Amino acid sequence: MSLTMQKFTTLTSVAAPLMRVNIDTDAIIPSREMKGVTKEGLSVGMFANWRYSDVDAREENPEFVLNRAPFRDAEILLSGENFGCGSSREHAVWALKEWGIRCVIAPSFGTIFYGNCVRNGILPVMLPEAVVKAFADIAERGEADDQLTINLPEQKVIGFDGDAHPFEIAPADKEMLVEGLDPIGLTLKQDDEILAFQKQDQTERPWVYL
Amino acid sequence: MGRTLIQKLWDSHTVADLGDNASLLYVDRVFLHERTGSVSLKGLEAAGRKVRNPEQVFCTMDHIVDTLPGRGDDTIMPSGKAFITTTRDAAKAAGITLFDIGDNRQGIVHVVSAEQGITLPGFTQVCPDSHTCTLGALGALAWGIGSTEGEHALATKTLAVNKPKSMRVNFDGKLAFGVTAKDMILNLIGAYTASGGVGHAIEFTGSAIHTLPQENRFTVCNMAVEFAAFTGVIPPDDTTFEYVHGRPYAPTGEVWDKALSYWRTLTADDDAVYNKDITIDCADIVPTVTWGTSPGHTTRIDGVVPQPSEAPDANARTSWERALEYMDVKPGQPLEGLPIDAAFIGSCTNSRLSDLRDVAHVVKGHHVANGVKAIIVPGSSQVKLAAEAEGLDKVFTAAGFEWRESGCSMCFYAGGESFGERERVISSTNRNFENRQGPKTRTHLASPTSVAASAIAGKIADVRKLG
Fold it and tell me: B83 vs A198: CB contact, 8 Å cut-off?
């Protein structure tokens, strides 16, 4: 399966609460875990400094949420504001995806991280902080039956109590996720417009063209 | 209604309106480096796509390459060599310009891009690196992207972008003695938190911005991303145009004249309206240092570590408590006088010639305190050569600093060099995240002169009191 362009429509899963604010991409995938020029093999290093009590020995920290049942199999992550801030490293998204996370719910996201999610079939959902916190409080009980359902076409999250929480997403981002579109292929359909822009620009801003 | 500068930059690069607040933007320049750019180039190749306009794409070696003298393709970071050789091969195959190890144009991507005149006012530029916003200080719309978006820009010369909201940050008044651009931006993030700019593109204006030398303006824009902003820009003025003039890739002759008259239009209209407006009185700013693990965890150099009970909300309180533990500091503890193990001067935030001159001014005639590891890494090979021509390297080494080759170096720990476990480092970089500079390493962000003064004192020091 390709690491990109996986379709996203609906998802029902346990949700792992990792309720810290400003979780940066250095925390999601530390630099030292980015060992090769590849998008693969990164999940073992995901959250390495939190997930392992001994990083070198890969000794798990039993307290860390993704090391606990039932959260080990969670496809949804709940977190605080500004999730994925910091470094642009797409490796953070590739690591989450390889581990099995398909959706992150948070009050806000780092901008680059958000875009990286959309391009890799992970749905970033923005919900008000009070809603995310209420989800997290219930999720924390660790009942395997406590599951959230995401419905992207209808742009809503069905909470543990069955209530629907609508969320916003840019139509193009939604389309990319639902259809599993290749954004480069999509843009190249507008090649005539790009070439026309460039032709005109060459006379208007000649200093751009080396 | 008038237009903001961001709106003007946006409009002048719009190839197509994609509806719903999204545009297909024309990308003037793409810059890559060996850590994430290598993945973009490989991904593109694997998809059987080509770089459109390779003459407008540049690449450098900065993230993985060692900064110790005598460096080559081998790196202290295990497996680092593969990033270097893959990038070199892919850059050659793609026909893009590479500033390789040993090339005197090599250096940190955002330092080099400005220095070579590759980024010009009014440009759009992307790089798979979050600190691309640095280049907004030239009046360019420059922002960080992921590797996959990098492939998109390389293959199509465009990116589909959702338009951010607008914010104006006015830095009014005059900077006091010992206060720098770094202190300005740390104050903004400290006052409004590390998520304060989320969803916004920022225009930095005001008298304190327009009296800053160009090199210091990069420092302000560099940390827009630490404020969670899409990017930050500074309207270009004569200071900018003087900086750009004569750079290797800048236009000359008639084309320069034409460019200059266009660049003079790159200001916000008087009646432009912003989604958010912030004003900071620079007279209130003193040298600033971070105490915690977010760039928003700041305090005055003569201040104390805050009480979690003073946190604005429950989330901040939890984050402060965690940071206190990680940093091994106590509420109410003064920052000044906290013993340090190391001092680091470098990174895309603060490593330019003017930073090094300021540092030399502070350290001349002094010596780094016993037991403190002190390192200076110039932002580019050009900066290194210029500093050496002025004899700054001699000042640094006489004072007990290591003087390195250019690169990102120990701004982050990639598995190679690092500061030790639980060591306390004062650093001119941009991120004090947990484990950023090494496993369990404790980072305090500050201006390069504050770092220099602290290296000499062996503890966090107020640069205003030195000499």
Answer: no
For residue B32, which of B104, B103, B112, B93 has the smallest C-alpha distance? B112
Interface check B149 vs A, CB under 8 A: yes
Whether B363 and B452 have beta carbons less than 8 Å apart is answered as: yes
Q: Is a pLDDT exceeding 50 seen at residue B113?
A: yes
Tell me whether residue B278 is exposed, middle or buried, using C-beta atoms within 10 angstroms of its C-beta: 0 to 12, 13 to 18, 19 or more: middle
Ordered alpha helix ranges (H), B270-424: 314-327, 353-363, 381-389, 392-398
- Predicted local confidence at residue B467, as pLDDT: 58
Question: pTM above 0.95?
Answer: yes
Please say if the pLDDT value at position B66 is more than 70. Answer: yes
Q: A164: distance to nearest CA of chain B, Å?
A: 24
pLDDT in tens, B346-377: 999 999 999 999 999 999 999 999 999 999 99
What Å distances lie between residue A44 and B157, B173, B265, B422, CA to CA?
A: 35, 50, 51, 24
Q: Which residues of B touch A114 (CB under 8 A)?
A: none
Paired residues of B278 in beta bridges: B169
- ipTM score over 0.90, yes or no: yes
Whether residue A88 and residue B128 make contact (CB cut-off 8 A), yes or no, is yes
Angle at CA of residue B260, ends B237 and B142, nearest 5°: 65
Residues from chain B that touch A194, judged by Cβ atoms under 8 A, are 15, 24, 26, 156-158
Partner-chain contact A207 B255, CB within 8 Å: yes
How far A149 CA sits from the closest chain B CA (Å)? Answer: 26
Peptide bond into A70 cis (omega under 30): yes
Helix (H, G, I), strand (E, B) or coil at B72: coil
What digits encode the pLDDT tens for the residues B148-159? 999 999 999 999
Q: Count Cβ atoms within 10 A of the Cβ of residue A114 and give its class: 0-12 exposed, 13-18 middle, 19 or more buried.
A: buried
Q: Which residues contact A162 (CB under 8 A, 6 or more apart)?
A: none
CB A194 within 8 A of CB B15: yes
Residue B332 has pLDDT above 60, yes or no: yes
